[in-house]
Amino acid sequence: MKKTTILMLACAVLGPALALWAQELEGPQGPPPEGGPQPAGMAEPKEHPMISPRFSEMLEKRLQLTPRQKSDVQGAISGSKDGLNAKFNEMLKLHKEMSALEKELWTKIRASLTDEQKKTLDELQRMRPVAPGAAPRGGMRPAGRPGGK
Description:
The chain is an all-alpha fold. Helix content is about 65%, strand content about 0%. The protein is built from 4 helices and no strands. Helix 1 crosses helix 3. It is elongated, with a radius of gyration of 18 Å. The two termini are about 35 Å apart.
């Protein structure tokens, strides 16, 4: 239960931050094509986005930081790096585990459906909303967004 709560809080906090960061640095991007390769710039991050040099550059540019502020921000980021990365890696691991369980559940649900019901389920999955900046869960994409049907 504690891991689930941590994961939910992390997603709630990181989702909007990652979306803003991605839009600021690379422009808006939709989810990758179904079954296709990950577009450039959309690979799974290896570290918490707030400790990357790109995040610091974005803050400096958008906030027009003075040299002193830039130094203070860099110090704060450096001091938070180990803790943020540890929790970020925990969150990634939990997310992968949760995604695998969701995929398994969808497979079990589909196994008992007729072909017509499977088509309806596919449509329902495409309409399911996805948090801003988050990768689609269980292979689902909302309709009307890039990659959706």
